[in-house]
């Protein structure tokens, strides 16, 4: 899915607004470690087009990032070069990140934007969190962000807000929706439409399967993998998590000594 999506990803995300909203929370988690910012090493483990990693690099942190999609990493590298930021990008997916960044450990690990639910099952989720623990230096901090699947499953909320974008003589429309599968997974679908100079619309449908991770499951596996001091929020503004109403689940954890 994300190979096809990569050329358009920065079109339908309002990165200026998103970063203004999310960066204060992320930096608060970094500052909680009490480490000189210039010595903090952090990694974004599903970086997409690299916008979080680039913004954090601009704040003076030592930043690495990775994504499973080579097309996303290529755009992330171009975005970093355009912003004059040095970020160590690698193409690698979950469960293999510590191997790709061998001999490196990080004070802060981010997994943002509903990326973690792309694991296939709870076994792969466990292996991914074990890999994060291996990546962690000392009693570092882990920040996970995803949809609140408890609310999504309860309400069977299929449709997300459509998004539109125009650049030059091109127009883009993006419509996202979910299919709830009998085996408990959720299929995430995106219909993208593009046209030039008021010409005919060209359409494409791309999909990806999600594991609807809920808070209790995540907390249990994190504890088993060597993390503690778990805290849950309903969004990146630090609002309390409400299972019935929060749109997102943001969880922070500290590696136990």
Question: In a few lines, what is going on in this structure?
Answer:
The chain has 257 residues and is α/β, with parallel strands linked by helices.
Q: What would you say this structure looks like, in words?
A:
- The model has no long low-confidence stretch (mean pLDDT 94).
- This protein has a seven-stranded mixed beta sheet with strand order 3-2-1-4-5-11-10, sandwiched between helices. A four-stranded antiparallel beta sheet has the order 6-7-8-9, with no helix packed on it.
- It contains nine helices and eleven strands.
- It is globular and about 60 Å long.
- Helices cover 32% and strands 32% of the residues.
- With 257 residues, it is α/β, with parallel strands linked by helices.
Q: What would the keywords be for this entry?
A:
7-stranded mixed β-sheet; globular; alpha/beta; 9 helices; 4-stranded antiparallel β-sheet; 257 residues
Termini gap: 38 Å
Written as H for each helix and E for each strand, in order along the chain, the element string is: HHHEHEHEHEHEHEEEEHEE
- From the spread of the alpha carbons, the general shape counts as globular
Estimate percent helicity.
25-40%
Classification by helices and strands: alpha/beta
Instruction: Point out poorly predicted stretches.
Output: none
Largest sheet: 7 strands, mixed
Mean pLDDT across all amino acids: 94
The total count of helices amounts to: 9
- Across the major sheet, the strand order is 3-2-1-4-5-11-10
* Rounded radius of gyration (Å): 18 Å
Beta-strand fraction estimate: 25-35%
The strand count comes to: 11
């Amino acid at each position: 899915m994300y190979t096809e999506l990569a050329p358009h990803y920065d079109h339908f995300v309002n990165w200026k607004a998103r970063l203004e909203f999310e960066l204060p929370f992320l930096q608060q988690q970094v500052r909680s470690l009490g480490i000189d910012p210039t010595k903090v090493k952090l990694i974004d483990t599903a970086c997409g087009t690299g916008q979080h990693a680039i913004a954090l690099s601009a704040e003076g942190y030592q930043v690495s990032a990775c994504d499973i999609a080579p097309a996303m990493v290529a755009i992330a590298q171009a975005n970093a070069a355009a912003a004059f930021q040095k970020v160590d990008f690698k193409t690698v997916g979950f469960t293999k990140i510590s191997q790709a960044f061998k001999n490196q450990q990080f004070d802060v690990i981010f997994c943002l934007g509903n990326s973690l639910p792309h694991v296939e099952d709870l076994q792969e989720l466990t292996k991914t969190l074990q890999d994060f623990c291996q990546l962690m230096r000392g009693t570092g901090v882990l920040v996970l962000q995803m949809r609140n699947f408890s609310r999504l499953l309860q309400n069977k909320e299929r449709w997300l807000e459509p998004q539109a974008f125009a650049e030059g003589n091109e127009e883009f429309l993006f419509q996202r929706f979910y299919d709830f599968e009998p085996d408990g997974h959720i299929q995430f679908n995106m219909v993208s439409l593009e046209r030039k100079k008021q010409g005919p619309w060209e359409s494409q449908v791309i999909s990806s399967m999600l594991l609807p991770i809920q808070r209790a499951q995540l907390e249990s596996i994190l504890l088993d993998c060597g993390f503690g001091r778990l805290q849950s929020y309903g969004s990146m503004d630090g609002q309390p998590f409400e299972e019935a109403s929060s749109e997102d689940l943001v969880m922070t954890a500290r590696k136990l000594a």
